[in-house]
Amino acid sequence: MNFLLHMYELAKKRAARMEPCEEHAPKPSCSFKQALKGMAVIAEVKYATPAEGDLGIQQRPAELASEYESRGAAAISCLTEPAYFAGSMAYISEIRNACTLPVLMKDFIADERQICAGRSLGADAVLLITEMLSYEELARLHAFSGDLGMDCLVEVHGIEGIEKAVRIGAGIIGVNSRDLTTLTVIPERHEELVNLIPKGVIKVAESGISSGKRLKELQGIGYDAALIGRAMARQDLRMELLSCG
Q: Active-site residue among 81, 94, 112, 206?
């Protein structure tokens, strides 16, 4: 199975059931981009993964977000994809009401209606995956998000993704070390790609980060922030990582 193609098709089906976009959505009150400095930790609310299934987290999204904020997270990432990550759009509003941090809607976004729905629930930013979208789709969704006042974390997995992200003028680029075909993590990808991202662009490391030592290494090679998901399921790692941000 081509995982990204499958997720794209599922996203299109979900979007088709959503309400049309409103013309005048309220602008975000929090700047996701401005929060990403000094090796910021973007702490993720995630209950399952395709590789591991249920992660066994019992806390509600509001509880997690409140704890993340109190321990020093710079922003919250909220998984909203329901089929493989046990996410929900409703989690965005729960998180928004529980903390003051910027909220990233993390999903396989393929349609403007998904972005509108996230913004209406309180999301300040969205994730766009270069390898899943054509250049035209990526450019359109990036521009649409900007029109709503939302930041975009533009995710890349290789050189072609970086080229697409730079071409659309992405101000935040995330390097994901997980191969979305095999779902395995390739840690050295962070080192291989960081210097290909132009100066002035905020650089975010994604996937495979589970220690304060690794956070310091990533900061040392030029990353401004790290998005941490799986490690947040463990209380000991959560405390260690958030204390380093």
A: 206
Cα–Cα distance between 160 and 141 in angstroms, integer? 18
CATH, residue 133: 3.20.20.70
Residue indicated by tokens 């321990």: 71
- Of 67, 176, 177, 203, which residue is the catalytic one? 176
- Is 25 domain-assigned? no
The reply to whether 27 belongs to the active site is no
CA distances from 138 to 63, 120, 145, 149 (A): 33, 21, 11, 17
44 included as an active-site residue: yes
Q: What percent of the chain has pLDDT over 90?
A: 81
Q: Is 46 a catalytic residue?
A: yes
Task: Enter the pTM of the model.
Answer: 0.95
Residue 221 lies in a domain: yes
C-beta of residue 72 within 8 angstroms of C-beta of residue 47: no
Which residue among 44, 81, 94, 112 is the active-site one? 44
> In this structure, is residue 47 part of a structural domain?
yes
For residue 206, indicate whether it is catalytic: yes
Range of the domain at 238: 3-14+33-244
212 in any annotated domain = yes
Predicted confidence (pLDDT) per residue in 105-146, tens digit: 999 999 999 999 999 999 999 999 999 999 999 999 999 999
- Work out how many domains the chain is built from and give that number: 1
Report helix, strand or coil for 168: coil
52 carries an active-site annotation = no
